[in-house]
Amino acid sequence: MKELSKRPGLSVRALESSILTVARSGEVRGATWNEIDFDNKIWIIPAERMKARKEHRVGAMKILNELPRIAGGNLVFLGQQGKQMSDMTLTAVLKVSALKSAFLSFDLFCVSS
């Protein structure tokens, strides 16, 4: 985690967020700014975005305060061309970070929802 936090990039911050919150890749990649309650320091993931279809509340991380807000975009982790970041982007970060083997066993990045 320490090495990861030293690396620049929005995709690296998305991976960090997934690790810190134990949220699924799709939940992190689909996070929107209106889901973040900065006053109460909480990320509220709506039921329709959760696998179990129940609202989920997660302690918001310091990382979120440091992320850029792109004009006209509501996604926290904006991908290319203003769309949601792809799951393959996070997989690439894992490969480069040499963390892949450590997290595959936990199935943190299960694509099937």
UniProtKB/TrEMBL annotation:
Keyword Isomerase in record:
no
Keywords (alphabetical) are: DNA integration, DNA recombination
SUPFAM superfamilies, from UniProt?
Answer: DNA breaking-rejoining enzymes
Q: Which InterPro entries match?
A: DNA_brk_join_enz, Integrase-like_cat_sf, Integrase_catalytic, Phage_Integrase
Q: Which GO terms describe its biological process?
A: DNA integration; DNA recombination
Query: Which one of the record's GO molecular function terms can you name?
Result: DNA binding
Q: Is Membrane found in the keyword set?
A: no
The Tyr recombinase domain covers which part of the protein? 19-96
The record's similarity note reads: Belongs to the 'phage' integrase family.
Per its record, how is this protein called by name?
A: Tyr recombinase domain-containing protein
Which source organism?
Marinomonas primoryensis
